[in-house]
Amino acid sequence: MNEHDQVAAMLAAKNAAPIELDPARTALIIVDMQRYFTQPSFPFTDVFEKMSPGVCAGYLRRVRETVIPNIRRLLQQFRLNGSTIVFTAVGTETNDGSDLACWARALDEAGMSLLGSRIHPPVGDPSWQIDPALEARPEELVVNKLSAGTFATTDLAHQLRTRGVDRVVITGVVTDVCVSTTAREAADRDFKVVVVSDACTTFSEKLHQANLETLHVFGWIRNVDEVMRLTQREKMSQTTRV
Amino acid sequence: MNEHDQVAAMLAAKNAAPIELDPARTALIIVDMQRYFTQPSFPFTDVFEKMSPGVCAGYLRRVRETVIPNIRRLLQQFRLNGSTIVFTAVGTETNDGSDLACWARALDEAGMSLLGSRIHPPVGDPSWQIDPALEARPEELVVNKLSAGTFATTDLAHQLRTRGVDRVVITGVVTDVCVSTTAREAADRDFKVVVVSDACTTFSEKLHQANLETLHVFGWIRNVDEVMRLTQREKMSQTTRV
Amino acid sequence: MNEHDQVAAMLAAKNAAPIELDPARTALIIVDMQRYFTQPSFPFTDVFEKMSPGVCAGYLRRVRETVIPNIRRLLQQFRLNGSTIVFTAVGTETNDGSDLACWARALDEAGMSLLGSRIHPPVGDPSWQIDPALEARPEELVVNKLSAGTFATTDLAHQLRTRGVDRVVITGVVTDVCVSTTAREAADRDFKVVVVSDACTTFSEKLHQANLETLHVFGWIRNVDEVMRLTQREKMSQTTRV
Amino acid sequence: MNEHDQVAAMLAAKNAAPIELDPARTALIIVDMQRYFTQPSFPFTDVFEKMSPGVCAGYLRRVRETVIPNIRRLLQQFRLNGSTIVFTAVGTETNDGSDLACWARALDEAGMSLLGSRIHPPVGDPSWQIDPALEARPEELVVNKLSAGTFATTDLAHQLRTRGVDRVVITGVVTDVCVSTTAREAADRDFKVVVVSDACTTFSEKLHQANLETLHVFGWIRNVDEVMRLTQREKMSQTTRV
Question: Which residues of chain D are within 8 Å of residue B27 when distances are taken between CB atoms?
Answer without folding.
Answer: none
